[in-house]
Amino acid sequence: MAAGEAPPAAVPAQLHAAIGQVDAAELTSTDGSPAPRWTLTWLEGRPIAELDTGVIVRLTAEGEVVVAHDPDDEFA
Hints:
By secondary structure, this protein is an alpha+beta fold. It has a domain at 15-23 and 35-76. Helices cover 18% and strands 29% of the residues. A hairpin with a 5-residue loop joins strand 3 (55-59) and strand 4. The chain is globular and about 40 Å long.
């Protein structure tokens, strides 16, 4: 999904607020470039949403939503 769009049903509701906050912070470009895109993956049964800019929103084993940035993301 493109940043700024409503998350699809496959994205767990626990991540929606954090994704919305990241979208609000990341969508500041006015140069006409396309919006970054989110990718949803699952690791050990837990969702991980990653934005093309390297921002990661994930759900921990304890149920906590964590937002981080991957400084090694070659596309960020």
